[in-house]
Amino acid sequence: FGALIPLALLRISARLNFALVVPLICVQVGLSWNRLHSLSDELLAWEDAAKLLVTGRELGADRIYYNRALGLIGKNRHREALTDLDRTIALNSSLAPVYFTRATVNFRLNRYLDALYDTNASLALDSTQSSSYLARSTVLKKLGRDEEALVDLRKSCDMKNVIACYAASLESKGIAGVR
Q: In this structure, are residues 89 and 97 in contact, taking their beta carbons and an 8 Å threshold?
Protein backbone atom coordinates (compact mmCIF):
# COMPACT_ATOMS: atom_id res chain seq x y z
CA PHE A 1 0.00 0.00 0.00
CA GLY A 2 2.81 2.43 0.88
CA ALA A 3 4.33 1.96 -2.57
CA LEU A 4 1.16 3.31 -4.17
CA ILE A 5 1.44 6.71 -2.46
CA PRO A 6 4.01 8.13 -4.92
CA LEU A 7 1.85 6.96 -7.82
CA ALA A 8 -1.17 8.68 -6.32
CA LEU A 9 0.82 11.89 -5.80
CA LEU A 10 1.84 11.87 -9.49
CA ARG A 11 -1.79 12.10 -10.53
CA ILE A 12 -2.60 15.24 -8.53
CA SER A 13 -1.34 18.77 -9.07
CA ALA A 14 1.93 20.05 -7.64
CA ARG A 15 0.09 22.62 -5.53
CA LEU A 16 -2.10 19.96 -3.93
CA ASN A 17 0.96 17.69 -3.48
CA PHE A 18 2.70 20.48 -1.60
CA ALA A 19 -0.37 21.08 0.53
CA LEU A 20 -0.52 17.38 1.46
CA VAL A 21 3.17 16.58 1.86
CA VAL A 22 4.36 19.56 3.94
CA PRO A 23 1.94 18.98 6.85
CA LEU A 24 2.73 15.26 6.71
CA ILE A 25 6.46 15.96 6.98
CA CYS A 26 5.87 18.36 9.87
CA VAL A 27 3.90 15.70 11.74
CA GLN A 28 6.60 13.07 11.12
CA VAL A 29 9.40 15.38 12.29
CA GLY A 30 7.41 16.25 15.40
CA LEU A 31 6.81 12.59 16.19
CA SER A 32 10.43 11.61 15.65
CA TRP A 33 12.05 14.58 17.43
CA ASN A 34 12.41 12.68 20.70
CA ARG A 35 14.11 9.77 18.91
CA LEU A 36 16.49 12.17 17.17
CA HIS A 37 17.41 13.64 20.54
CA SER A 38 17.80 10.22 22.19
CA LEU A 39 20.02 8.88 19.46
CA SER A 40 22.23 11.97 19.40
CA ASP A 41 24.25 10.65 22.33
CA GLU A 42 25.10 7.08 23.34
CA LEU A 43 24.31 7.72 26.99
CA LEU A 44 20.87 9.16 26.17
CA ALA A 45 20.04 6.09 24.09
CA TRP A 46 20.88 3.73 26.98
CA GLU A 47 19.07 5.93 29.49
CA ASP A 48 15.97 5.69 27.30
CA ALA A 49 16.38 1.91 27.10
CA ALA A 50 16.68 1.72 30.90
CA LYS A 51 13.47 3.75 31.29
CA LEU A 52 11.64 1.05 29.35
CA LEU A 53 12.61 -1.63 31.86
CA VAL A 54 9.67 -2.49 34.07
CA THR A 55 11.29 -4.68 36.72
CA GLY A 56 14.97 -4.18 35.89
CA ARG A 57 15.32 -7.94 35.55
CA GLU A 58 14.11 -8.35 31.98
CA LEU A 59 16.16 -10.28 29.46
CA GLY A 60 18.96 -7.98 28.33
CA ALA A 61 18.70 -5.63 31.31
CA ASP A 62 22.28 -6.49 32.27
CA ARG A 63 23.51 -5.28 28.86
CA ILE A 64 21.46 -2.10 29.13
CA TYR A 65 22.91 -1.28 32.54
CA TYR A 66 26.44 -2.14 31.38
CA ASN A 67 26.24 0.02 28.27
CA ARG A 68 24.72 2.89 30.24
CA ALA A 69 27.61 2.54 32.72
CA LEU A 70 30.07 2.86 29.84
CA GLY A 71 28.30 6.03 28.72
CA LEU A 72 28.40 7.40 32.27
CA ILE A 73 32.13 6.64 32.51
CA GLY A 74 32.61 8.59 29.29
CA LYS A 75 30.97 11.57 30.99
CA ASN A 76 33.11 11.11 34.15
CA ARG A 77 30.04 10.20 36.19
CA HIS A 78 31.82 7.35 37.95
CA ARG A 79 29.60 6.95 41.01
CA GLU A 80 26.50 6.56 38.84
CA ALA A 81 28.41 4.14 36.61
CA LEU A 82 29.33 2.09 39.67
CA THR A 83 25.63 1.71 40.51
CA ASP A 84 24.88 0.38 37.03
CA LEU A 85 27.87 -1.95 37.12
CA ASP A 86 26.65 -3.31 40.47
CA ARG A 87 23.22 -3.91 38.90
CA THR A 88 24.82 -5.67 35.95
CA ILE A 89 26.79 -8.01 38.20
CA ALA A 90 23.69 -8.70 40.31
CA LEU A 91 21.91 -9.82 37.13
CA ASN A 92 24.83 -11.68 35.55
CA SER A 93 27.95 -12.38 37.58
CA SER A 94 29.71 -14.30 34.82
CA LEU A 95 30.87 -11.38 32.68
CA ALA A 96 34.60 -10.74 33.15
CA PRO A 97 34.54 -7.39 31.25
CA VAL A 98 32.02 -6.01 33.73
CA TYR A 99 34.31 -6.78 36.66
CA PHE A 100 37.24 -5.27 34.76
CA THR A 101 35.24 -2.10 34.06
CA ARG A 102 34.11 -1.87 37.68
CA ALA A 103 37.75 -2.31 38.78
CA THR A 104 38.68 0.62 36.57
CA VAL A 105 35.93 2.79 38.07
CA ASN A 106 36.87 1.78 41.61
CA PHE A 107 40.51 2.61 40.86
CA ARG A 108 39.52 6.07 39.59
CA LEU A 109 37.56 6.59 42.80
CA ASN A 110 40.64 5.58 44.85
CA ARG A 111 38.86 2.47 46.12
CA TYR A 112 41.87 0.21 45.68
CA LEU A 113 40.70 -2.79 47.71
CA ASP A 114 37.45 -2.89 45.73
CA ALA A 115 39.46 -2.57 42.52
CA LEU A 116 41.65 -5.48 43.62
CA TYR A 117 38.57 -7.61 44.35
CA ASP A 118 37.19 -6.83 40.89
CA THR A 119 40.44 -7.55 39.03
CA ASN A 120 40.64 -10.88 40.89
CA ALA A 121 37.04 -11.66 39.89
CA SER A 122 37.74 -10.70 36.28
CA LEU A 123 40.78 -12.96 36.17
CA ALA A 124 38.88 -15.81 37.82
CA LEU A 125 36.36 -15.64 34.98
CA ASP A 126 38.87 -15.09 32.18
CA SER A 127 42.56 -15.51 32.87
CA THR A 128 43.54 -14.91 29.23
CA GLN A 129 43.23 -11.11 29.39
CA SER A 130 46.61 -9.45 29.75
CA SER A 131 44.91 -6.12 30.50
CA SER A 132 43.43 -7.61 33.69
CA TYR A 133 46.89 -8.62 34.91
CA LEU A 134 48.19 -5.16 34.08
CA ALA A 135 45.27 -3.56 35.94
CA ARG A 136 45.80 -5.78 38.96
CA SER A 137 49.50 -4.94 38.88
CA THR A 138 48.65 -1.24 38.98
CA VAL A 139 46.26 -1.74 41.90
CA LEU A 140 48.79 -3.84 43.83
CA LYS A 141 51.43 -1.15 43.27
CA LYS A 142 49.05 1.46 44.73
CA LEU A 143 48.52 -0.79 47.73
CA GLY A 144 52.28 -1.02 48.28
CA ARG A 145 52.48 -4.68 47.29
CA ASP A 146 55.33 -4.16 44.84
CA GLU A 147 56.54 -7.76 44.51
CA GLU A 148 53.07 -9.06 43.64
CA ALA A 149 52.61 -6.12 41.28
CA LEU A 150 55.80 -7.01 39.44
CA VAL A 151 54.71 -10.65 39.07
CA ASP A 152 51.43 -9.56 37.43
CA LEU A 153 53.24 -7.00 35.29
CA ARG A 154 55.57 -9.70 33.97
CA LYS A 155 52.65 -12.08 33.42
CA SER A 156 50.91 -9.40 31.35
CA CYS A 157 54.13 -8.85 29.40
CA ASP A 158 54.43 -12.59 28.78
CA MET A 159 50.98 -12.36 27.23
CA LYS A 160 52.36 -9.82 24.72
CA ASN A 161 50.95 -6.68 26.36
CA VAL A 162 53.32 -4.01 25.00
CA ILE A 163 52.49 -1.48 27.72
CA ALA A 164 53.22 -4.05 30.42
CA CYS A 165 56.52 -4.98 28.75
CA TYR A 166 57.58 -1.34 28.65
CA ALA A 167 56.60 -0.82 32.30
CA ALA A 168 58.40 -4.04 33.31
CA SER A 169 61.57 -2.93 31.53
CA LEU A 170 61.49 0.38 33.39
CA GLU A 171 60.87 -1.44 36.68
CA SER A 172 63.82 -3.76 36.07
CA LYS A 173 66.01 -0.71 35.44
CA GLY A 174 64.87 0.71 38.76
CA ILE A 175 63.16 3.75 37.29
CA ALA A 176 60.73 4.96 39.95
CA GLY A 177 57.24 6.31 39.37
CA VAL A 178 56.42 4.10 36.42
CA ARG A 179 52.83 3.68 37.45
A: no
Write out the chain's pLDDT in tens, 179 residues.
567 767 676 777 777 777 877 888 888 877 777 666 666 788 988 998 999 999 999 999 999 999 999 999 999 999 999 999 999 999 999 999 999 999 999 999 999 999 999 999 999 999 999 999 999 999 999 999 999 999 999 999 999 999 999 999 888 787 755 44
Rounded Cα distance between 114 and 85, Å, is 13
Distance (Å, rounded) from C-alpha 7 to C-alpha 40?
34
* 0.90 exceeded by pTM: no
User: What does 106-124 look like in DSSP terms, one character per residue?
Assistant: HHHTT-HHHHHHHHHHHHH
Amino acid, single-letter form, for residue 12: I
Helix, coil or strand: residue 72: helix
Please, are residues 94 and 126 in contact by the beta-carbon 8 Å criterion? no
136, HSE (Cβ side, Cα atoms, 13 Å)? 26
